[in-house]
Amino acid sequence: MESKARDAVGQREVFGSVPLASAARFPIATTIVLGITVVATGLQMLYPGVLAALRRNPDALRAGEWWRMATPLFVHSDGWVQIITNLIGIAVVGSLVERLIGSLRWLALYFISGLVAEAISYAWEPYGAGASIALCGLIGGLLIWLWKYYQPVRTWASLYVVYLIAGLIGYAVGGFTADIILAVSFGSLFGFLLRRPGPDRPLARMLALFGLVGAGVLTLLRDNHGPALLAGAGLATLMLNDRWR
Fold this sequence. Notes:
Elements: E1 13-15, E2 18-20, H1 28-46, H2 49-54, H3 58-62, H4 80-101, H5 103-124, H6 132-149, H7 156-195, H8 200-220, H9 225-239
Antiparallel strand pairs: 1-2
Helix pairs in contact: 1-4, 4-5, 4-6, 4-7, 5-6, 5-9, 6-8, 6-9, 7-8, 8-9
């Protein structure tokens, strides 16, 4: 039987039968991956050759530069908006997900989902780079957690997820203007709902459905974030299954 969350900062929390690490635990995986990404992205700003050497490049990959399957997750090819959005997302969503599922499963969500989406990206967007597809693996995992346990939905991470997925769909459909319109519209609506009193379960289910439907839409639009979200959701479904834990 699923019980309600017993919230207390610095104490152990339990959602159903799944232990939640203390809110005071330091998110080591998030911090390390975020730090490496900041350093790599900073270096590409100082030395443009870094981006050229690490981004997706199908010709270079075929020539034996195998690291290009993973290194595009640490650099960014689309400017400051992409950089800031991704770094905030890793910090906000990443730290929450790590407290929910632990560091090792966090790393699995981030890198397995990222590599799956990276492989697809070589067909759909062969010369890009960015941490967002790995971040979407974490988001997919968070969506499954919220669907199953409902908590903690009233967080900045939830609001970020709505803004990001709505913005990605907008960008895939109509470019930067549609990105802003959809992100602000859906983000403002969900932010209003988060501030209203009431049970958390409908909000969590609404967010999970929105995210998973959004993942499907993005996949149909051949946006590499869609498969990343779905990969993270699939992995989390296995991780949170009692027979696999």
